[in-house]
User: Which sequence fits this backbone?
């Protein structure tokens, strides 16, 4: 029996000031409502326009659980289309990405569509004469997602007509994208290196929350990062610290480090850790990079760009970016207890290759299904997904450093171990879940 | 479960059978979780490479599932012993089925031998058991009368699929 469908009050009751009900993680009904309401009401990340550089290039992905396509139209703009034939629903594209030429052609009955989705041709079209076909859903072709925004290469889409416009939804949080992109001497990123895809048997929000959870690294990652620190201690004195140790060891930083790093809160569930410093602050300089940045921006501006050490920026609902290492994690919901995590990496155009090499090393050491750090995290998520079925306590506690006046505050920097970002994400969750309900 | 200790090579140049025995022995050490002995099979400058892309040629500017030197491999082995390695409580187990390794190239002058081994690998923990199909390519050389791995490359047939945890070694 439905408990939440069409009942905004019941959904709001799942989120309290300092705790959330387990059904936000375990209920399939709540999950379906997220797909029907919360995702379509939000600006959701689709992909990067460097994935579709030429007219006819496409990339297939999802918004929530709905299949969509990012495509470069003949006029040079990017479009987002629902990836189904308007005839029988057949997925149009065969590969995840490729080039379709001037039009899409359904492999089932050869209906064809321009790259903006409009219907081009149907074989034996006279069979539809005098049937009122012009008024059908099918006649409009592959339905485009109407609200699309390409922000400096990063493409977002909102399925529903209502809700906030792009600027209102993201506000000041776009500064994290700006900083990541400005790290290229020519202000341009390119998807590079391949994508790591890691299946998680847990709710997608556990991953989102974990991006700003700074009280877990030194505990959950003691097995991986702690072992790195111990093994590295045995290296002969004077040995140059390898890149891999530079990457993993900071996960073992003490609580004080994370308290002082700070967390910033923006509107609509967005926010970032690493206001003052982060685990990425002390990486070795890459030869030749600073010189290129100085030549491009001048020394003062170059120092300002590279001086930002934002750790994880969460964009509600389901991505996180790491500006200092040009990495984006996409938490794709599949079911209440199943999430596909895609970790994408970017090349800074006109910067030394060594930066991409380090980014890729970070990605495989931390985000791969073969990563020991990833193993630590997934074990915790899966145990939580299981433990939440206990009836002894139906609530998840998000109370750390709670302050009664925090709701409504924006662009504030707080203690780096606060669970404010998680409470904040759930305030946004309630807002976009019940919007228009 | 007993396995004879590694025999020294009879001659300076390994026979095909010695190369084959070495590859089979490596898989057995993994299956029996004798990871310290397993690590000893790797040369100090060795790499263990598991590509992410089909026919991948570059481990540096293309991402891999694993591209690890001996330091990182030794960290994995130490981690498996850890008291707070929660993703290994309970521990995973694994099982290799190898096709007979084929000697693809032997170059005694360059001290370089390459074998190719199709295999099925099963990893299991709690109620989950996952089957992987792969090809292992071993680049071997002789050091102090013993074979050592310079590079082990594991190409999964579905290298670009979304996997859950892969916690041991293929």
Assistant:
């Amino acid at each position: 029996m439905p408990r939440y469908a069409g009942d905004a009050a019941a959904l709001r009751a799942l989120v309290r000031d300092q705790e959330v009900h387990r059904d936000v993680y375990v209920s399939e009904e709540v999950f379906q409502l997220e797909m029907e309401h919360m995702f379509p009401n939000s600006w959701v990340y689709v992909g990067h326009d460097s994935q579709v550089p030429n007219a006819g290039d496409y990339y297939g992905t999802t918004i929530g659980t709905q299949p969509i396509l990012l495509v470069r139209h003949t006029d040079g703009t990017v479009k987002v289309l629902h990836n189904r034939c308007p005839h029988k629903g057949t997925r149009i594209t065969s590969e995840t990405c490729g080039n379709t030429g001037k039009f899409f052609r359904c492999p089932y009955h050869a209906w064809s569509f321009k790259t903006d989705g409009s219907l081009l041709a149907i074989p034996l079209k006279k069979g539809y004469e005098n049937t009122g076909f012009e008024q059908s859903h099918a006649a409009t072709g592959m339905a485009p997602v109407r609200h699309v925004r390409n922000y400096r290469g990063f493409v977002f889409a909102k399925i529903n007509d209502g809700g906030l416009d792009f600027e209102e939804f993201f506000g000041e949080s776009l500064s994290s994208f700006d900083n990541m992109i400005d790290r290229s001497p020519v202000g341009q990123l390119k998807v590079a290196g391949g994508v790591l895809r890691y299946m998680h048997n847990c709710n997608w929000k556990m991953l989102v929350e974990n991006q700003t959870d700074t009280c877990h690294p030194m505990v959950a990652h003691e097995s991986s990062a702690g072992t790195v620190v111990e093994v590295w201690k045995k290296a002969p004195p004077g040995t140059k610290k390898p890149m891999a140790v530079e990457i993993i060891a900071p996960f073992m930083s003490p609580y004080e480090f994370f308290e002082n790093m700070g967390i910033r809160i923006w509107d609509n569930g967005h926010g970032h850790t690493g206001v003052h410093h982060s685990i990425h602050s002390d990486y070795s300089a890459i030869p030749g990079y600073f010189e290129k940045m100085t030549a491009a921006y001048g020394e003062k501006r170059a120092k300002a760009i590279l001086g930002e050490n934002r750790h994880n920026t969460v964009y509600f609902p389901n991505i996180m970016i790491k500006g200092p290492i040009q990495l984006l994690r996409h938490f794709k919901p599949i079911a209440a207890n199943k999430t596909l995590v895609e970790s994408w990496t970017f090349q800074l155009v006109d910067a030394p290759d060594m930066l991409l090499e380090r980014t890729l090393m970070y990605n495989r050491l931390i985000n791969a299904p073969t990563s020991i750090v990833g193993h630590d995290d997934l074990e915790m998520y899966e145990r939580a997904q299981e433990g939440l079925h206990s009836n002894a306590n139906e609530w998840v506690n998000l109370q750390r450093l709670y302050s009664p006046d925090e709701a409504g505050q924006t662009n504030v920097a707080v203690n780096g171990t606060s669970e404010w970002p998680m409470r904040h994400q759930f305030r946004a969750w309630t807002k976009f879940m019940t919007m228009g309900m | 479960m007993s396995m004879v200790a590694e025999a020294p090579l009879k001659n300076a140049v390994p026979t095909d059978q010695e190369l084959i025995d070495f590859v089979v022995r490596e898989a057995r050490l993994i299956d029996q979780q004798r990871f310290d002995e397993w690590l000893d099979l790797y040369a100090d400058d060795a790499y263990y490479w598991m590509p992410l892309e089909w026919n991948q040629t570059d481990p540096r500017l293309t991402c891999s599932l694993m591209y690890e030197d001996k330091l990182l491999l030794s960290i994995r082995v130490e981690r498996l012993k850890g008291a707070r390695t929660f993703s290994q409580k309970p521990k995973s187990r694994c099982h290799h089925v190898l096709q007979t390794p084929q000697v693809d190239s032997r170059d005694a002058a360059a001290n370089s031998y390459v074998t190719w081994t199709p295999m099925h690998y099963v990893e299991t923990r709690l109620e989950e058991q996952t089957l992987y199909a792969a090809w292992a390519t071993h680049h071997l050389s002789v050091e102090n009368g013993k074979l050592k791995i310079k590079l082990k490359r594991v190409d999964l047939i579905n290298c670009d699929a979304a996997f859950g945890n892969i916690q041991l070694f293929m």
User: Anything to note?
Assistant: Chain A touches chain B at residues 192-201, 220, 222-224, 226-228, 230-231, 242, 244-245, 340, 345, 353, 356-357, 360, 363-365, 368-370, 372, 374-376, 378-380 (CB under 8 Å). The CA atoms of residues 208 and 318 of chain A lie 6 Å apart. The radius of gyration of chain A is 23 Å. Chain A has a mean pLDDT of 97.
